Amino acid sequence: MFSLHHGSHSNELALEYFDFAYPLIFHRHWPSIRLALLSLPKPVALLNPYSLSNKNIKQKLIEQGSIDMLRFDNEKLREDFNLIQKQISNSDNEYQIKKLFEQKENRRLLGTSDLVDEQEDINEEEEQEEEINEDDDMNTFNQPEPVKRLDEIYKLALEQQAQSVIKGNVVSIVDDDKERDYRKIPPSWHVYTFPRSNMSRFEPAKTDELGLLDYYCMDGACILPIIALDVQPFHSVLDLCSAPGGKALNIFHMCPYIQLTCNDINGSRWKRLIEVFTQTVPKDTLAKHVKLVKGDGCLFGERQPASFDRVLVDVPCTSDRHALITAFNIFSKKRIQERVELPAYQRKLLESAIRACKPGGIVVYSTCTLAPVQNEGVVEQAIENLASTSNKKSRGYQGKVPIKCEVISTQSLEKHYAYFFDFYAKTRYGSLVLPHISNNFGPLYFCKIRRIN
């Protein structure tokens, strides 16, 4: 079982916690996810359209064997991959049927055996009632039950979060994106990666005569929230938690004819955000189209209500992959209180993002964690809070009608990019990229939300 006392460093605590919590959610898939998390991530190269050596670099990347994942159309690879996925799915179904048959047979044998003690039968029934059903695990499970050796504050946090149930039926889901053609990609946006199971690495990016980088390396899953955001020319776009800047850079390369506001509150991360843009975008273009702001994202919705056509809110989270390689992360004993308050903070950021969005506009919520309480749990609670009548009495919103939202399904996006990403099949809202050793992207969760009124 998980215990704070086993690890001496916060990265060890993070792994021990994941080993306790995530098998209850992902079951037999956890070992492969764990292996991927502990292995080197697979970066992609975001080509810089402003680099003077853009064309030469594009040809060089192709010669190295990389492919533009936004324009990937190799039908042979897709067919081979889909066949493998179908075989895996059939294997999973056979496994589930076999498992159910074994459980039924065991119950039958136990029920007819004279050697089984009556009290043992009662205990077994109680244990079965407490088990998390695999079909409903994302719906009913958010955090593990506390154990005796946990610190008292951690006990309290786990008890409180365990009570937070993802209902899965309180937010309306629409399938507006099913007719969207994901092959129509803006000419300025190119993202290169190596084919599945190819572990090659990109060389460090070089600078051109103007000092601009040829390309920017990042996690490939970062493109998915940007595709879901569906930015159009002349949109006003807000990246609420923008640092270190990879997703904001994708937004700008996807559609440079916009007004982009990038906000972050963290000082060192905000400096990194400035560096990323100054190393990739010419000064005059940056001054004309990008506004860099340092402020509290939770207050943006009050200060600039209904001001943006599109809002990306990539919230601070437990950063599962990062937590396994850094010594002082959010699993540190000195940061317990911060971790306890994290889901509430994420919810406030999402509510602020929705308030800052224009009616009819789109908000995309994203994290880099596998934890349901930080993903679907936050989405559901934020939308419920804004829709409730109590929202009228919140500070700065006296007398205003509640805000209604709906989740837009991203299943068609999942289907289009299934060759590159392993998506979890049991999310209630949004999409979750699972790390996999053959294409080691993620974890990344994202959910597309439309503000209705």
TrEMBL record:
It catalyses: a cytidine in rRNA + S-adenosyl-L-methionine = a 5-methylcytidine in rRNA + S-adenosyl-L-homocysteine + H(+). The keyword Mitochondrion applies. Residues 115-138 have a biased composition (Acidic residues). SUPFAM superfamilies: S-adenosyl-L-methionine-dependent methyltransferases. GO terms for cellular component: mitochondrial large ribosomal subunit. The active site is at C368. GO terms for biological process: rRNA methylation. It comes from the Eukaryota. It is found in: Mitochondrion. One of its GO terms (molecular function) is RNA methyltransferase activity. Belongs to the class I-like SAM-binding methyltransferase superfamily. RsmB/NOP family. This is NOL1/NOP2/Sun domain family member 4. It comes from Rotaria sordida.
